[in-house]
Amino acid sequence: MLEKTSTFQKAIEAVEALDPEAQAILVDIIQKRLKQQRRDDLLKAVAEAREAYAKGEVRSGTVADLMAELDD
Predict the structure, then answer these.
(1) Which residues have a Cβ under 8 Å from the Cβ of 16 and sit 6 or more positions away?
(2) Is 10 a domain residue?
């Protein structure tokens, strides 16, 4: 954990060494990359769900069906 904190602290210090405009550009880039990463993760989850559905590994039903199954 100490290594991560040290790396994180170094990153903060490097960002602080940038002029304000460069910091703003960096923040924008990081935000865009995080959004893309979340999109990629969501697309992967959707693909996995579709694959499970295609294999018949997904069941459907009502909430009452689910509750009845849980009671069994």
Answers:
(1) 23
(2) no
